[in-house]
Every structure is written in C-alpha cells, then in structure tokens.
Amino acid sequence: MALPSWDAPGGMQQYLVKEKLVSLRIEGIQQAMSEGVPLLDVRAPEDFVDVHAKDAVSVPLYTPISGFSPVQMMRRVVYAANGMAGTELNENFVADVVAAIPDKSEPIVVMCDSGGSYEATATSGLEAKKSRSLIACYLLMQEGYENVLHAEGGLRDWARLEMPVVGEDIEAWVQKAAMMP
Length: 181
Prior knowledge:
The strands form 3 sheets. A 5-stranded parallel beta sheet has the order 1-8-7-2-4. The chain has helices at 12-18, 26-34, 45-50, 70-81, 93-100, 132-142, 154-160, 170-179, and strands at 22-24, 39-41, 52-53, 57-58, 62-64, 87-89, 108-111, 148-151, 165-166. Helices cover 39% and strands 14% of the residues. The protein starts with 11 loop residues before the first helix and ends with a helix. It is of the alpha/beta class. The chain has a single domain (12-60, 90-179), classed as Oxidized Rhodanese, domain 1 (3-Layer(aba) Sandwich). Helix 1 packs across helix 6. Strand 7, helix 6 (132-142) and strand 8 (148-151) form a beta-alpha-beta unit.
C-alpha cells in the first residue's frame, strides 16, 4: 500500500482539513476515554511495551522491514547507517484496527508520540507537521471510520500533563522523549 503525498494537492493534509478532522487536547481525550471511547496507539510495538497511556490499544502503523528484496535490504542499510531500525507501513494496519474496533461509527482517538498538526500554527510555522497518528487518521477515515479523533500533542503531552501511563521502561522513555524536538 502506497500512501499519497502529505502536502501535495489532493494529499493527506488537504483531505484531513476538508473532512474537518477533530484534534483533541489531553483533557478532551481523558473525557472521551471516561465515556468509553477507545484510544488507539499507533507507535511501534516496542515503544508501546516501554510506555503507553493507560488503557490504550496498540495497533502499529509501521512495522520492522520484514522482506529481503534488494530494495528492502538497501532500506535497512540506509536506516542502520543513520542509527535507526528500518520500518515500513504495516500492510495490515486497517485490518488490525477493524479487528480491534469493528464498529466504524464508534468514536476512536488516535495517538502517536508527538501528535503532529494538519494545519499550520504559530508554533509549526507555515507548514503542518505530519505524524504517524495523522497518517493513521487519514487511513481510517478512508476506510469509512466516521468519528476519528486525533490526539493533539500525542503521548509526550499526555505524560507531560501527568496522565496515567504504564509500561516496562517508563523512565527511559521519558528521558528519550525529553531529547526529541
């Protein structure tokens, strides 16, 4: 599955603006969750194990590169040269979400590390900031989910505001998150 461009005409960003995707601040997410709205964490599985918002459901948008084609091998090398583990779009992402949350009319909040922004703001400059959660929102809306909500600020804001988190290595994640822009 190939994703359309983020900011090109007709791209994901324009779609999210046109469809009026709602971004919730942390307080709104907490309220929605208290009403039974599921929180979908689209970060990598190992990141979810390290730390996640209490009661979040994990369905990763990206997974480790699994094949051994020449292109996949080259991508692994490039990622490794930059000190990163290579990932690719999870081809089963939508199916995995449907399995976890089958009712497409049910509200769903989508979260990643930083949240991103689909509109330009005073802090983001002239361009919006693409994120895993925004890409996931786009894919779910395209799949027919009717009430997709975006977690503004992502897990970083969630943790910064001292909302409940659980995981195996919370302290290491907090230190790592503090170093990210």
